[in-house]
């Protein structure tokens, strides 16, 4: 059986490895328009902000590894069209040569693409996006120019906040803009997001929330950012508004979700039984919502690639859904979340209650490495099942969110959590654990 995989980042790589490592009867062909594969884009800000020595470690595999396993791989090759009836992929390589690959099964792993604001001045120099490795290189190069003193970052989601920190660490004046009233509004309720807002301000980042960019101005290169509330002199702009599914190749032939992503079942199969879609170009099932949705995360992409690979290989594997677990660490403040915030639940029409608590991670007599931890648990009012959790601290408590992810997946109720067996030792935690206390405080 011959499987063609279009796209060789996290989802495509996971699918290819699953097939190559487990199903020797598979002929695998991989196609990607980029010159590199496996780039961990979530590490761009660490590299640009000089928190790590370089970008080399952000690549976890390479073309040669797949060739060694027996795959054929076409890099710097753009797919022009797909004949879904004739089961052929038509592409053009970097030398202009046409490549035609037939297939038994096709995996679309084309990922996502940045949302580009269609406003005046969008073609000026000094405007950047952050998705590919090459875009990270351009941002790093521009930040190295001494004449770049003030940087505007548009979008205060994860990527925007991270690259704002990176630019500040490089000694730049940083202005952070978002149409929402806080940073990280898609992931956290206001009381958690405002902890990050204060953290950003305390570290010298100028916040402009509730502002919408309306134009870029300048002579050849951007010199000003204009919003609905003012005009700001800037030397560089980084757009981090968000991403949408990169699903143009099959948009006319495959069933799609409301945002254009390929609609898939729990085997990652599209409306065409010989075509699978994985990663950011496809939908995913949310256990918190108990419905199909779209969540673009690298961790979700890897899992979807594994599921598609096994099903194509002949082993039936059902996706178990996701919670959208995520985290961020900025200037020493860590926030993690999973499932739905109260704000998100309201948006989707789910009636919820919440409970929260704040305390030291360890007993007060532990003086070193002991920080406050803030926790919020969101649960459905009727069923009382846990649908979300958020934590914030300057101590690493990130592992806690994995338990809440499993709780959402298994439909655990807030009441089951109240007497959960949580061990106590002063080196690690308190006898009245903040998880237990928060659960006990639930109505």
From TrEMBL:
EC number(s) for this protein? 1.6.3.4
Catalytic activity of the protein: 2 NADH + O2 + 2 H(+) = 2 NAD(+) + 2 H2O
Q: Name one GO molecular function term.
A: oxidoreductase activity
What are the entry keywords? FAD, Flavoprotein, NAD, Oxidation, Oxidoreductase, Redox-active center
What superkingdom does the record give?
Bacteria
Domain Pyridine nucleotide-disulphide oxidoreductase dimerisation: start-end pairs: 333-429
What positions does the domain FAD/NAD(P)-binding occupy? 2-305
- Cofactor(s) the record lists: FAD
Question: What protein family does this chain belong to?
Answer: Belongs to the class-III pyridine nucleotide-disulfide oxidoreductase family.
The family database entries (NCBIfam families) matched by this protein are listed as: NOXase_Strep (NF046103)
Name of the molecule in the record: NADH oxidase
């Amino acid at each position: 059986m011959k499987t063609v995989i279009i796209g060789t980042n996290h989802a495509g790589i996971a699918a290819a490895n699953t097939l190559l490592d487990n199903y020797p009867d598979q002929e695998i062909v991989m196609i990607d328009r980029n010159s590199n594969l496996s780039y961990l884009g979530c590490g761009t800000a660490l590299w640009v902000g000089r928190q790590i020595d370089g970008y080399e470690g952000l690549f976890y595999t390479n073309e040669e590894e797949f060739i060694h396993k027996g795959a054929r791989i076409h890099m710097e090759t753009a797919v022009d069209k797909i004949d879904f009836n004739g089961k052929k992929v038509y592409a053009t390589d970097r030398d202009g040569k046409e490549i035609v690959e037939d297939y038994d099964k096709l995996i679309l792993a084309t990922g996502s693409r940045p949302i580009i604001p269609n406003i005046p001045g969008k073609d000026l120099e000094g405007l950047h996006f952050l998705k590919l490795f090459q875009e990270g290189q351009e941002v790093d190069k521009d930040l190295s120019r001494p004449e770049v003193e003030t940087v505007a970052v548009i979008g205060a989601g994860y990527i925007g906040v991270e690259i704002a920190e990176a630019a500040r660490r490089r000694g730049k004046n940083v202005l952070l803009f978002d149409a929402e009233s806080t940073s990280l509004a898609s992931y956290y309720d206001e009381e958690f997001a405002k902890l990050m807002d204060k953290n950003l301000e305390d570290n010298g980042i100028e916040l402009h929330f509730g502002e919408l960019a309306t134009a870029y101005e300048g002579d050849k290169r951007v010199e000003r950012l204009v919003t609905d509330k003012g005009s700001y002199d800037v030397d560089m702009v980084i757009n981090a508004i968000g991403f949408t599914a990169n699903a143009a190749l099959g948009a006319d032939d495959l069933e799609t979700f409301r945002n254009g992503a390929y609609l898939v079942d729990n085997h990652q199969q599209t409306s065409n039984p010989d075509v699978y879609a994985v990663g950011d170009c496809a939908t995913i099932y949310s256990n918190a919502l108990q419905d199909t949705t779209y969540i673009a995360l690298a961790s979700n992409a890897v899992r979807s690639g594994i599921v598609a690979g096994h099903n194509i290989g002949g082993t039936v594997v059902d996706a178990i859904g996701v919670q959208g677990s995520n985290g961020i660490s900025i200037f020493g403040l860590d926030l993690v979340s999973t499932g739905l915030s109260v704000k998100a639940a309201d948006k989707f029409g789910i009636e919820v209650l919440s409970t929260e608590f704040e305390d030291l991670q360890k007993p007060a007599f532990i003086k070193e490495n002991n920080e406050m931890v803030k926790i919020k648990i969101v649960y459905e009012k009727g069923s009382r099942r846990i649908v979300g959790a958020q934590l914030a601290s300057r101590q690493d408590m990130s592992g806690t969110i994995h338990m809440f992810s499993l709780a959402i997946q298994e439909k655990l109720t807030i009441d089951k959590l109240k007497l959960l067996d949580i061990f106590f030792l002063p080196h690690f935690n308190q006898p009245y654990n903040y998880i237990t206390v928060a659960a006990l405080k639930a109505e």
